[in-house]
DNA sequence: TCCTAATAGTGTTATTATGACACAAAGTAT
DNA sequence: ATACTTTGTGTCATAATAACACTATTAGGA
């Protein structure tokens, strides 16, 4: 640090504001949704925005993100990771604001929403039916988050964080298809999962329309470890 | 943003300082090195640190990172990407400092170093022979950067940014081995590259000890596109 | 009750990718 | 010339993948 190396004077530099914004993903009736809040005040009053807020001086960035998440949804102990930091000058008309974006994956069935008094409304939107004219650069942040989620799906077990504790293979497959935006082959998908040894049969069955689906749960050992479930259907290059 | 939605008062919140730190990677005689500066002043005087500095109010984060890089090495127009943002309270004893870390890959043959007047010294260190007691949490940042570089090697063409414009396959292979820390099979590595169609034969040869090596260059079309060169030697799982 | 639709789940096979390793080629040093 | 060093290619057994046909088990209606 060339300048922090100096005899430090806290007032020497003008400081930007730092916020955290949290892109909250969840499944609702099998479709990927994202949680948005509608702003009350200037700037971007009435526009939809990603929930977020200022970082307190004594909390870590992740703590701040979890605090925001809990304020908005009441949930804690969910999967969360840092996404990217957005800090272009002018992204907020009030002052220089640097925003550390996180994304969270939650099991939506598990809780209700709480409208904070800072916003008109809170709402889930399907990721492909987002409202128009999002506040600030939040559309960019959202696209970034969706891209990241999509690409991490290929080499991690992220998708499982969106499902209830017990789930069927068809349901898992539909999530992959929903997020990746392409159809997968049932047989190959199931085989890959069987071979991965990620899942544990609960013995239970889930009745629906046709043949009942077997319910599985995760082997915790696998989630915690450095194990990755790499699913890719090879996407033939259309070159040559 | 719950709170930014408010009638905004710039003085309402205490603000952290924001810096950028840049992990600069380069090859020197075939080994992966990282550029460090030795601090002059408190805190961590005499300790080695990743180059970095405050973000000006009117420049983007990436601009700030490129400015720091150029101040330290004189280079510009190099590969650079945002790594992660570190912001734990207490990571800097002076005040709350949030640091947006970037990493850059440079072709080291191409320039000399400039010792800034804020530091005692600037120096390249092999990544596996780092000095002890780095300043702040810079050891953590460095480990983070090395991990990221290593993992991105498997599915991107990052490594090419470290090499001169024209290079031989054995040299490229040695970089992969150096960064991944494992031996690769020559035949398989070459075949993968040939099939990828990433390289273009320059026709030139490079004489050394034994048989001269053929020199290649990149096809720019491939670098810019969404093409990824995925090199993985499958690392047999030792389970089952 | 029996047939059909619907959904879950398995088997099979051709093709391609991978890992291992032997071998050939083209220089330099003596 | 000959040994040595380094570059570069060929081959083959094995594993992973994509495609697709098939079987299984339920609900619901005729």
Automatic annotation (TrEMBL), chains A, B:
Residues 13-149 form the Nudix hydrolase domain. GO terms for molecular function: hydrolase activity. Pfam families: NUDIX (PF00293), WHD_NrtR (PF21906). It comes from the Bacteria. Gene3D superfamilies: Nucleoside Triphosphate Pyrophosphohydrolase, Winged helix-like DNA-binding domain superfamily/Winged helix DNA-binding domain. The keyword Hydrolase applies. Keywords: Hydrolase. InterPro entries: Nudix_hydrolase (IPR020476), NUDIX_hydrolase-like_dom_sf (IPR015797), NUDIX_hydrolase_CS (IPR020084), NUDIX_hydrolase_dom (IPR000086), WH-like_DNA-bd_sf (IPR036388), WH_DNA-bd_sf (IPR036390), WHD_NrtR (IPR054105). The keyword Hydrolase applies. CDD domains: NUDIX_NadM_like. Belongs to the Nudix hydrolase family. This is NUDIX hydrolase. It comes from Herpetosiphon aurantiacus (strain ATCC 23779 / DSM 785 / 114-95).
